[in-house]
Amino acid sequence: MKNTHTLLIILLITVITGLMPVSRAHALFIEYTETYTDGSSQPFGEYPWLSANFADYAPGEVLLTLRAVNLTDAEFATSWFFNFNPLKNVNQLNIQYLEGTAAASVTIDPDLISAGANVTMPISIDFATSAGSSKAKKAALDRFEAGDYTVFLLSGLDDLTAEDFNTIYSSKGLDYLSVVHIQGIGEGSAWVKDGTPVPAPEPQTWILMGAGLVLLVIGSRRMRKNQATAGA
After folding, report:
1. pLDDT tens across 156-184, in order?
2. How far is the C-alpha of 154 from the C-alpha of 160, rounded, in Å?
3. Alpha carbons 25 and 208: distance in angstroms, whole number
4. Does residue 43 contact residue 192 with C-beta atoms inside 8 Å?
5. What's the CA gap between 21 and 14, in Å, rounded?
6. Kind and range of the H or E element at 15?
């Protein structure tokens, strides 16, 4: 049994060592939890109301997934705004729709786009402000409502990573990573911003955590066995 434990430990160490040189993938997870303009209505659902996830997909390619996490039935997101690495040319960025609720338009402007309350950002993804009047129209262009999601492929720069969207815009004592306009909150609407961004765990991280737990279990069992043998 001792030899088996030794071999397992050696195997786990080999796996961990093999993972260490792997180039690090980037991921950025944003939750929208705060309103930031005077007169904004508070969305009725629990926060986070919305989320955005940037994840490296391939060299120079990033997947962006937007989700309406806790909007109520009447609420819908109309415009999402994002920052971009100021050291890179945002005009080279390409945003391609893949699946989910289709956007009405995508705007990229290095001179920045107004995003409410003196906030400006270079990227805007806009969705319909009214539901389609027919099934065909509704399927092609719909509001971004409760439970909806959409996925985009971001490309155009050889060295593009998810970290390029982890850029802060500061105004009047507040920091903004990303903002969204939500309508349909009773008679009002809200401009909402990110809370603290959450780094998404990478596959290597999960493997390392799992390997550590296995080693901990093995060590605990061996300790109990040794204690039982000593007490016999």
Report:
1. 999 999 999 999 998 878 899 999 999 99
2. 8
3. 15
4. yes
5. 12
6. helix 2-19
